[in-house]
Amino acid sequence: MTEPRRRALVVFETIFGNTRQIAEAIAAGLAAHFEVTLAEASANPSPEGMSLIVVGGPIHAFGMSRPTTRENAEAQAEKLGIKDVHTGAGVREWLERLPPATGQVDAATFDTAVKVGWFVIGSAARGEASLLSARGYTMTGRPQHFFVKDMDGPLMPGELERARAWGQGVAELTA
Predict the structure, then answer these.
(1) CA-to-CA distance for 90 and 117, rounded, in angstroms?
(2) CA gap 113, 105 in Å, rounded
(3) Cα 115 to Cα 155: distance, rounded to the nearest angstrom
(4) Residue 1 lies in a domain
């Protein structure tokens, strides 16, 4: 009799759709080792029964988004004629409601960022990791940045492949 596959939850938020694409690629990388659930934070997915939680969102104002920064991004998307793909509360709010881990639950975090010169300004992933750690989740690896050309995208070349590989690496570290 084979053991049931471990379960992973990939939670994300997005305004322009770039972070969704990265989350989907990460989920694909995890899928060789986990049964994966992909969910937007506003859907309030449950962590119950998960062995791994991966959380990601865009960098807004040097960190995780807040209602006001999402409103600003939504207004910018509207001005650009981009269909707003965001549907409510973000990663910050989901993490603040997240119950403490029961037992060993691994976690990893990522964000999408516009690279300015050779460095990234701010990190949503570090804040996500801090909130997960405070709730007893075991961080696996370092928070990861994935890059977009501009606030509204597109993703930089190779980022989907890099996200898939990162997801596979996280899976291998926790399998």
Answers:
(1) 28
(2) 27
(3) 11
(4) no
